[in-house]
Design goal:
- By secondary structure, this protein is of the alpha+beta class.
- The chain has 5 domains: about 180 residues, Rossmann fold; about 80 residues, Translation factors (Elongation Factor Tu (Ef-tu), domain 3, Beta Barrel), CATH 2.40.30; about 70 residues, Elongation Factor G (Translational Gtpase), domain 3 (Alpha-Beta Plaits, 2-Layer Sandwich), CATH 3.30.70.870; about 110 residues, 2-Layer Sandwich (Alpha-Beta Plaits); about 110 residues, Alpha-Beta Plaits.
- Helices cover about 25% and strands about 35% of the residues.
- It is built from 14 helices and 34 strands.
- The strands form 7 sheets. An 8-stranded antiparallel beta sheet has the order 11-10-16-7-8-15-12-13. Strands 2-3-1-4-5-6 form a 6-stranded mixed beta sheet, sandwiched between helices.
- A hairpin with a 2-residue loop joins β33 and β34.
- The longest helix is centred in the C-terminal third of the chain and has 18 residues.
- The C terminus is likely disordered.
- The chain binds guanosine-5'-triphosphate.
- Guanosine-5'-triphosphate binds next to α1.
- Keywords: Cell inner membrane, Cell membrane, GTP-binding, Hydrolase, Membrane, Nucleotide-binding, Protein biosynthesis.
- One of its GO terms (cellular component) is plasma membrane.
- It is found in: Cell inner membrane.
- It is a peripheral membrane protein.
Length: about 600
C-alpha cells in the first residue's frame, strides 16, 4: 500500500484541469500516443463541446519516481460544476490528496475556493499548482499571494506549470509521490468500499467505481450494499488503466471497479458502502446522502406521437443518472409530457440537450421552477412543485422556499451593479471584501427561485463576463409567497398561474395579463383577464369585443387573396384551445411557459 497514491485535481472551470490530466497520462505512458486523444478524461460529447466535466473517470497510472521505486497513481477526476458538488465531495473522499490548479492569469475564482474548502474538509493534502505560466500575462506571484490569503494554504511549495507546453510535469508527479500520504487501511479487516461513482452499461449492468478502505474484493464473493441491504455475487473486479481491465482482486487502499449483476443505479448508489455479505463491517463509511433534485421543469414532445419515445429516453438517461427524477404531467397547451427534477440548471440543460441529440426528440422545456415547502394549518407539510400543488390560501400556515449562499468574484468596478441585481432578486447581503484592489468577493443569500431565472446571464452581461460564481444550498426559509391565479372570462387557467413573492405579485401579474391581452384575439364578446390571489382580484385587463376582420385589409375584389386569408384564419383557429367560451391560441401558452416574466 505504501506505493499507492490516490489523488484528484480540483480547479475552477477552464483553469486547465483536463489539460494537466492529459499531460500526466502522457508522461506516465498510460495512454499510447495513437490512442491519445485530447482530453481523454472528458468522455461525453456534450462535456467535450462545452469543455466541462460532469462524470467522473478514474485512471490508474504507473510512475517510476526519482527514488527508483514504482508507484501506482490513481487519478480520480472530479466534476467542475456546482450542480455536481455532491459528486465532487464523494470523489474527494476517495483520495488522500489533491492538486489545486489555479490559472496564473486569472487567479483564485469562486470555484477554486469552494473546491479547495471541500478538500480541506476532507483532510486532504493539497498541492497548489499554478498553471499557464507560459502566458505573457501570467502573474504567478500574485496568484501565490491569493492562495495564501484567500484560501489560507501554504503556497511556498506551489508548483509552476504549463500544462499546455508540458512545463513542470515531472515535478508534479514527484510532488504527488512525496507529499501525498499513502492510503491507510487493513487488508484483513472486513470489506469497506466507498462507491464514488456508478455507471450503467447496456451489457454488463451497473459498474460501480470504488475506493477500498479496508479488506479486499474478488470475483465470486457475495457483497452487501449497505444502503439498500441487497446482496449480489461479484462477477468481475478490475482497474482503469485507463480502460477497464479485469484483475484478480482489489485490495484496501486501491481504486477500481466492481461488476455484480446489479440492474439499476438505485441499488448501487453513489456514496454507499459495499461490504462482505458473509463478514460484514459493523458500520458504513460516512458519506451516503440521498441527493434530491432542486430544480424542476416540464418536458413535452413537440410531436405528440413522440410521447412513448420520450418516456423511453428519459428512462434510459435515468439508468445513468440517479439524480434525475420524472413523473408524467399533462399540460393544457402541450399535452402529455413529464415533470423532471434536476440538481441544478446545468444538469437540466445537459439532460434536455442529450434527449434532443442522443434520442433525436424535439422537445419543449418549460421555464424551470423550484420545490416549495408548504406548512398547512393542520400541521402537515407538503412539497409543492407547481402552482396547482398549492392548496387554498386559507389552508396555508406558511410557505418556505429554498435558499442558496451565493459567492461572486468580480472586478470592483461592477460591484454596485451586481449588488443591485442581488437586491432586486430579494437577496440578503452577507459580506463584501477586497481580494485585491481590483477584485471583490461578494456574498449574498438568495432565493433559489430568483437565481434560476436567468440570474447568471444577467450577471454576466452586467460584468461583461468578468464574474465567477459558486453557490451552495443552505436550506429552506419562510417566505411571504403567494399563488397568483389568472382568470380568463371568469375561468381560472391553471397553466397561467404562478408563485411569487407578495411584493412582486402585482408587477408580475400585470406583465402576465398584458402579455395575454396581446396574445388572445378579440372575440365576439368582451373578455376579462384577471389576476387574483385567492378570491381577491389584484389586476385586470379587457380584450375588446370585436371580431378581427381579416378581410378588412383587402380592399378590392381579389378573390384568391381573400380566400387564402380566410383559410389562414381557419388554420389559426385549429391551433386554438377553448377555455370556457374563449379561444386561446397555443402561442399564448407557449409564450407563457417559456417566458421570462420579469421584463
Ligand atoms: N496557454 C496555456 N493554456 C492552457 C494551459 N493549460 C490549459 N490551457 C488551455 O485552457 C483551456 C481550458 O483548459 P481545460 O484543461 O479544458 O480546463 P478544465 O479546467 O479542464 O476545464 P473543466 O473541464 O471545465 O473543469 C484550454 O483551452 C486549454 O488549452 C497552459 O498551461 N497554458
Amino acid at each position: 500500500m505504501d506505493n499507492i497514491r490516490n489523488f484528484c485535481i480540483i480547479a475552477h472551470v477552464d483553469h486547465g484541469k483536463s489539460t494537466l490530466a492529459d499531460r500526466l497520462l502522457e508522461y506516465t505512458n498510460t495512454i499510447e500516443s495513437r490512442r491519445m486523444r485530447e482530453q481523454f478524461l472528458d468522455t461525453m460529447d456534450i462535456e467535450r463541446e462545452r469543455g466541462i466535466t460532469i462524470k467522473l473517470v478514474p485512471v490508474r497510472m504507473k510512475y517510476k519516481a526519482n527514488d527508483g521505486q514504482e508507484y501506482i497513481l490513481n487519478l480520480i477526476d472530479t466534476p467542475g460544476h456546482v450542480d455536481f458538488s455532491y459528486e465532487v465531495s464523494r470523489s474527494l473522499a476517495a483520495c488522500e490528496g489533491a492538486l489545486l490548479v489555479v490559472d496564473a492569469t486569472q487567479g483564485v475564482e469562486a470555484q477554486t475556493l469552494a473546491n479547495a474548502y471541500l478538500a480541506v474538509d476532507q483532510g486532504l493534502e493539497i498541492i497548489p499548482v499554478i498553471n499557464k505560466i507560459d502566458l505573457p500575462s501570467a502573474q504567478p506571484d500574485e496568484v501565490l499571494r491569493q492562495i495564501e490569503e484567500i484560501i489560507g494554504l501554504d503556497a511556498s511549495q506551489a508548483l509552476l506549470v504549463s500544462a499546455k507546453e508540458g512545463i513542470g510535469i515531472p515535478e508534479v508527479l514527484e510532488a504527488i509521490v512525496k507529499r501525498i500520504p499513502p492510503p491507510k487501511g487493513d487488508v484483513n479487516a472486513p470489506l469497506q468500499a466507498l462507491i464514488f461513482d456508478s455507471v450503467y452499461d447496456n451489457y454488463r449492468g451497473v459498474i460501480s467505481y470504488v475506493r477500498l478502505v479496508n479488506g479486499s474484493v474478488k470475483k465470486g464473493q457475495n457483497i452487501l450494499f449497505m444502503a439498500t441491504r441487497k446482496v449480489y455475487e461479484v462477477e468481475e473486479v478490475g482497474f482503469f488503466i485507463p480502460f477497464m481491465s479485469p484483475s484478480e482482486e482489489i485490495r484496501a487502499g486501491e481504486v477500481g471497479y466492481v461488476i455484480a449483476n446489479v440492474k439499476t443505479l438505485f441499488e448501487a448508489r453513489v456514496g454507499d458502502t459495499i461490504t462482505d455479505a458473509n463478514k460484514p463491517t459493523d458500520r458504513p463509511l460516512p458519506g451516503y446522502k440521498h441527493v434530491k433534485p432542486v430544480v424542476f421543469c416540464g418536458l413535452f414532445p413537440v410531436d405528440r406521437d413522440d410521447f412513448p419515445r420520450l418516456r423511453e429516453a428519459i428512462e434510459k438517461l435515468q439508468l445513468n443518472d440517479s439524480a434525475l427524477t420524472f413523473e408524467p404531467e399533462t399540460s393544457e397547451a402541450l399535452g402529455f409530457g413529464f415533470r423532471c427534477g434536476f440538481l441544478g440548471l446545468l444538469h437540466m440543460d445537459i439532460t434536455v440537450e442529450r434527449l434532443k441529440r442522443e434520442f433525436d426528440i424535439d422537445l419543449v422545456a418549460t421555464a424551470p421552477n423550484v420545490a416549495y415547502e408548504v406548512v398547512l394549518t393542520d400541521g402537515n407539510i407538503i412539497e409543492a412543485h407547481r402552482p396547482s400543488d398549492f392548496p387554498e390560501p386559507t389552508k396555508i400556515e406558511e410557505i418556505r422556499e429554498p435558499y442558496i449562499k451565493l459567492t461572486i468574484f468580480l472586478p470592483s468596478d461592477y460591484v454596485g451593479k451586481a449588488m443591485k441585481l442581488c437586491q432586486d432578486r430579494r437577496g440578503e447581503f452577507v459580506s463584501l471584501d477586497y481580494i485585491t484592489p481590483e477584485r471583490v468577493r461578494l456574498i449574498y443569500n438568495l432565493p433559489l427561485a430568483e437565481f434560476i431565472i436567468d440570474f447568471h446571464d444577467r450577471l454576466k452581461s452586467i460584468t461583461r463576463g468578468y464574474a465567477s460564481i459558486d453557490y451552495e444550498h443552505i436550506g429552506y426559509k419562510k417566505s411571504d409567497l403567494v399563488k397568483v391565479d389568472i382568470l380568463i372570462h371568469g375561468e381560472p387557467v391553471d397553466a397561467f398561474s404562478f408563485i411569487c413573492h407578495r411584493d412582486n405579485a402585482y408587477k408580475r401579474a400585470l406583465s402576465v395579463i398584458k402579455k395575454l391581452k396581446e396574445l388572445i384575439p378579440r372575440q365576439l364578446f368582451e373578455v376579462a383577464i384577471q389576476a387574483s390571489i385567492g378570491s381577491r382580484v389584484i389586476a385586470r385587463e379587457n380584450v375588446k369585443p370585436l371580431r378581427k376582420n381579416v378581410l378588412a385589409k383587402c380592399y378590392g375584389g381579389d378573390v384568391t387573396r381573400k380566400r387564402k386569408l380566410l383559410e389562414k384564419q381557419k388554420e389559426g383557429k385549429e391551433k386554438m384551445k377553448m377555455i370556457g367560451k374563449v379561444q386561446i391560441p397555443q402561442e399564448a401558452f407557449l409564450a407563457f411557459l417559456q417566458a421570462d416574466e420579469e421584463e
